[in-house]
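ENTRY TYPE: protein
CONTENTS: sequence, structure tokens:
***
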Amino acid sequence: MTDTGQPRLGIRANLAQFTLLVVVNALVGATLGQERSTLPLLAEDVFHLTGYTALLTYVLAFGLTKAITNYFAGTWSDRYGRKPVLVAGWLVAIPVPVLLAWSPVWMGIIAANVLLGVHQGLTWSTTVIMKIDLAGPRRRGLAMGLNEAAGYLAVALTAAITGYLAARYGLRPAPFLFGAACIVIGLGLSTAVVRETRAHAETEAKLHDDVAPPGNVLRHTSFRERALSAACQAGMVNNLNDGLAMGLFPILFTTVSGSLTGVGVLTALYPAVWGIGQLVSGPASDRLGRKHLITAGMLVQAGALTVVAVGSSFAVFAVAMVLLGVGTAMVYPTLLATIGDVAHPAWRARAVGVYRLWRDGGFAVGAVVSGVAADLWGLRAAVALVAVITAASGLVVAVRMYETHPRSPQRSA
């Protein structure tokens, strides 16, 4: 607190709460990672689904519910506070591992992913908003890098752990018991230890000019404001790639790896590099600016997907997963920092919700586009199509977005 009783802004001034929120977001990522290695194989081996479009129904259900929940998470965080939304998200997650581990029908798996989408939308959105609140304007890229690194390193680690558990003990229930433990710990920390951060946003708002919010934050963020709208489309395409990775990569990897452990390693590489890379790219965007890092990252992702489309060995797929992780790391925290740069603190939580509505809608778009393309033309053709879409998205950022970081040399010029 300052001498006037106002909360202090900055990561160092709020280190204990900021670190706690990093841990909580790691548990959010682990809850998502519990199904990443195993669910596509579960669909084929246990439920005997035929056709890639049918298999990807769980990605579609997850993506749609997470995208919609993101929007409401931002609005509810402004209205009711951040912590109640965070705790509600953990409560919704409680049935997820039970359904994944024991549901006798595929509709139970779909229901689990609907709940998982609501959980991720409420919890991940809220930890993002809370860290932006605490960090203040100067180190926003670092804050987002740490947040997203924690989440996706946990996704990677959990994908590897659940792949090992599935290989040793079977596809069900062992991998999902690990996820249940993460949910219990996350709920306990969020309820007992996490503190409300809305007052920090109100403090930062006093440092800005009294700018009236746009009449419609959804329309303004999605279409009218150049940097915000460019970020929304890039975020959607980025998660289109991730939807493809969640649903189809494990099946493609089985063609070069004879074990579930090998599939787990390849599946984990991408989010692991993604997670670690954000520790570099987040702070780098505070020094170098946002726009060019986003453009380059989208083009690197497109190149990595091209390698996947033509690859035919474990080593080539491993290189492609590393490149895909690098490209995604360049983009992910930088897009969130861009939203934080442009949106006024008075309506920033809603802008974050709108951005994440578009971004996580990419899961659903990816499920439909890649599933239909794979059914029509094959797995590799679907990956190649997504590579073209990703390259086009990078060019949109290059043309439409302006530099948003307040201390960037490009913006000063």
